[in-house]
Amino acid sequence: MAVLWLGAATTAATTVLAENIDHQGKPIIVTATRTAQTTEESLASVTVISRKDIERQQARSLEDLFRGVLGINVHNNGGPGKGTFLQMRGTESDHVLVLIDGIKAGSATSGTTAFENIPVEQIERIEIVRGPRSSLYGSEAIGGVIQIFTRKGVGEGIKPSFSFGGGSYTTFNGSVGLSGGGKQGWFNMTVSGIGTSGFNACTGSATAGCFTDEPDPDRDGYRNVAGSARAGYRFQNGLEIEGNFMHSAGKTEFDGSFVNKAVIAQQVFGGSARFSPFDFWRVNIIAGRSRDDADNYLGKVFMTRFDTTRDTITWQNNFMLNQNHQLTVGTDYQHDQVNSTEAFTVNSRSNWGVFAQHLASLAAHNVQLSLRHDDNQQFGSRVTGGAGWGYAITDKVRLIASFGSAFKAPTFNELFFPGFGNANLRPEESRSFEFGVRGSPDWGNWSLNVYQTRIDELIAFDASILAPANIDQARIQGLEAVLGTKIMGWQLNGNLTFLDPENRSSGLNKGNILPRRAEQTFRLDIDRQFGRYRVGAMFLAEGERFDDIANTRKLDSYVKFDLRAEYIMSKHWRLLGRIENLFNEHYETAAFFNQPGRNFFATLRYQP
Asked: Can you tell me which residues the record assigns to a coiled coil (predicted)?
């Protein structure tokens, strides 16, 4: 409750604040509708994190970037390189669809994406779309979609870049890159690395937390080396081709009696072609492969392997019927393959999806209608739909309303894991409604959204059959408020979320709060430049949450305060410093798993 009242009081003093102060230039997004739009045109609730935002925040991981972002709960299992999971708008961590340069990423066995192994130095920007998008993307997009774009060369000529830094917990990282471009072509290559001794990940036991027979107070380190390449060319006839590649490999240590070390790899590569057979017809073809590999060890003894490969192909056609109507029709193919030391009874499956969307502008009204049919080799057919409506009250104020249905296919672990899986599982299903109002006055931007999501057929462990089953239901309600403005040279940047994630399943847990969701979250960023100096701060307050479905193990609310500063040494050289968790707050986002105490980090960066 303390966090709730603190957030409310601060909001009353500064109205509502927004996370995107650097985006007054109306950035172009593509994830919300699979077509190019400005953020103001979109009928979805969208956050864009640009490369400038990443560098301004001095973020060193995706966890840094996502913590406190509107609508996102983050829980981490003990520091850098440890399991990091996102819950968007109160849904499950495997209810978020993740794309990297248009290629679907993630593990087919666990159903989640290893965000902890995607380095921020390889990222150009991130688009976060809140709310269901299965009617465009198929399975997983119940809570929303996150698309990560790797770095892209811009401007004329060839430009090198370099950064190196170090700090607490014997942490070092660095990157080197080369990018270039011209009137028709562009390229970027970046290599980065990080190494840290870390800290003791877990204080749990064999029955809770890290599942180790005895507490292991050693440091649990992490190492990662990653590289990416992206290049494209636009021909005189309008044909545009592009290729992209990202590979991240490393080793992480943690506490456990069964496994306590993992060698991991994440990889995405693909290509795209875009051309217009006629002025009104635009064709996009995207194909690629993503890999998620993990070899697990107990000490130096190899224990298990879980490698998954996902191949995807998309053919999309955008038809400009006239200046007020756009029709999109397309098809997706996906094939998942599992290679494991565990004897999965089925180790591959395919999915075909066809989708259509109509975008219309009628006077002050905007409409989005979408429909999709998926035919999956494992669970059969599913049809999902979506509808959105926007109304411009004035040039600066807009109303929006939307509805969407979505589904999540069971994972290979849930279906076929030896001694655990249930091959009769059905997909999880949801229905969501959202209403909002947003404004973009001359002094900034603001928005207010309310939503409700009902999820049926949620998969949970059924003790009566000793296997997962479709036995749970949930009702999630939320309110999100954001605003960005500038006061006396200070840029203010924040958001406030109220969440009510209720378990609607029958039995003893009915009416309980779904695990690991903070019911209140408030984040405020403040930045200002003084000549060659830039200073900033981030204030994050999250309410209490429960770690278990029975609501017997409570995680306390916490307040976290970070400081950052930057010195512009010359046109191309910068020195950056950051103090995280200034007041050394002790907190947990998952029970028994430690989080960083007060720590600092400094970076030297060269970037033309």
From this structure: none
Residue 92, domain CATH: 2.40.170.20
Residue 456 near residue 498 (C-beta atoms within 8 A): no
Tell the residue number behind the tokens 């040039």, with chain if given.
395
* Tokens linked to 55: 């560098």
Quick check: is 90 in a domain? yes
Residue pair 277/304 in contact (Cβ under 8 Å)? The answer is no
- The pLDDT value given to residue 400: 98
Of the pLDDT bands very low, low, confident and very high (cuts 50, 70, 90), residue 461 is confident
> Shortest CA distance to 355 belongs to which of 371, 374, 333, 369?
371
The 3-state secondary structure of 363-415 reads CCEEEEEEEEEEEECCCEEEEEEEEEEEEECCCCEEEEEEEEEEEECCCHHHH
Average pLDDT, the chain: 92
Three-state secondary structure call for residue 56:
helix
Q: What percentage of the chain reaches a pLDDT higher than 70? A: 94
Listing DSSP states for 7-20 in one string gives HHHHHHHH----S-
Position 415: which residue type?
L
pLDDT at 14 > cutoff 50 = no
Q: How far apart are CA 346 and CA 47, in angstroms?
A: 38
Distances (CA, A) of 383 to 302, 356, 470: 43, 12, 19
Residue at 545 is within a domain: no
Tokens standing for 36?
A: 């190019």
Q: SS3 for 125-148, per residue? A: EEEEEECCCHHHHCCCCCCEEEEE
